Amino acid sequence: MKLLAHILSVLDRCKGLEMDAVAVNEEGIPYFFKGDHLFKGFHGKAELSNESFAELDDHHHLGHVDAAFRMHYEDNPTDHDHMFFFLNNKVFSYYQHKLEDGYPKDISEVFPGIPDNLDAAVECPKPECDEDSVIFFKGDDIYHYNVRTKAVEEKEFQSMPNCTSAFRFMEHFYCFHGHMFSKFDPKTGDVHGRYPKEARDYFMRCSKFSDDSDHVERERCSRVHLDAITSDNAGNMYAFRGHHFLRKDEGNDTLKADTIENAFKELHSEVDAVFTYEDHLYMIKDDQLFLYKVGEPHTHLDGYPKPLKDELGIEGPIDAAFVCEDHHIAHLIKGQNIYDVELKVNPRVAGHERPISLFKKVDAAMCNIEGVKVFVGNHFYHFDSAMLFVTSRALPEQHKVSLEVFGCDH
To answer: CB-based contacts of 181: which residues, under 8 Å, 6+ apart?
Structure first.
């Protein structure tokens, strides 16, 4: 038991771990593998890989996954959306965490022409590659594997470092080398822009690491989901993620970044939900409510934080919250339910509970004159009103947070 506790304490992704493999599951959640452990998503503690993929330990004693990817091949439902793991000379195929019959198999049987003991692998669907393909990495050698024909084409990616792991996320391709990463063109291997970059700045909830880190560029282009977002009565936007937040003032496209502790020192870091009402920021963390007067600097009101139950009539934690313009109702999202709190009455009570049918979990939400934006992972969805958000039975168009909210095109 002591040994397990020691291992878990050592496996801190913010210490600069070199991941063995990365793959995205069927729900779009990245899995980062290190040794016989696994990190799910962009934050949280390590867990044993065999808790999710039990058979990995039944067939090997290597203690780690060499490479992993999620297959994209819609013409073959047998393999499409399956996760493939590579260990030494074996390959495992999982669907919804269940090992497919007949696996593990030799890599040469399933992917003829692909060597054993791989360093990394990543799926490449068309048109990002000419055909639905998988790119395999071993040292300096790059193999493009055509999923349909099983043909293998060896390539040279001269401008890219050797990958210790690789994955495709939001239609971009990333090569990890140590705790750095580079974004690359899957056809040519070309790396454009200022790379390598620090993986902990973009793919993990970690504090700033070096003087080379850029607060604004990191936060606007980060792949980590938002914790909370709101706009105040003047139209200034605040977006919170981990230890940091971004601010964009009305009528000015310039983004500013700062630490939560610097601007909201009583909070320290990480907020669950935020909404704005009558020139005050209502900031929810766990089961506490912090209240700030909007200004330069923001003023923390005496007597706060106060219990969320006493102030808004609901137990925490809360996933998201928003207030629409000219309304006096706070909409609080908790799990798959939404509650209304009339802010002008006292005591305040969370009532009018309704289920949210479109999303299993909402990360953040905000409302302005254009309607309601609902943030889930790295995307957001626009609804014309709070009522339509609750009553709609079909998802509206999906938008990218980093591109359409923060203007990051990489």
So the answer is: 174, 175, 195, 196, 197, 199, 202, 203
Give me 227's structure tokens: 């914790």
Per-residue buried b or exposed e for 195-208, using 16+ beta carbons within 10 Å of the residue's own CB: bbbbbbbbbbbbeb
The token pair that represents 177 in the structure block: 């080398």
Alpha helices in 154-298 (DSSP H): 199-202, 215-221, 260-263
The count of residues in the chain is 410
- CA distance readout (Å), 84 to 60, 144, 181, 219, 289: 15, 16, 22, 31, 44
Determine contact, residues 290/244, Cβ cutoff 8 Å: no
In the beta sheet, which residues pair with residue 134? 123, 145
Using the 8-state DSSP alphabet, how is residue 126 labeled? T
What's the rounded Cα separation, in Å, for the pair 113 and 141? 12
- The C-alpha torsion from 185 through 188 and 194 to 200, rounded to 10°, is 50
Q: How confident is the model at residue 29 (pLDDT cuts 50, 70, 90)?
A: confident
My answer on whether omega of the bond before 196 falls inside 30° of 0, hence cis, is yes
CA distance 152 to 142: 10
- pLDDT tens readout for residues 88-102: 999 999 998 899 999
Alpha helices in 29-102 (DSSP H): 55-59
Could you give the CA distance from residue 240 to residue 250 in angstroms, rounded to a whole number?
Answer: 17
- How many of the other CB atoms lie within 10 Å of CB of 8? 14
SS3 214: coil
Q: Is pTM beyond 0.90 here?
A: no
Q: Which amino acid is at 165?
A: S
**What tokens were used for 40?**
């799910």
DSSP SS3 for 218: helix
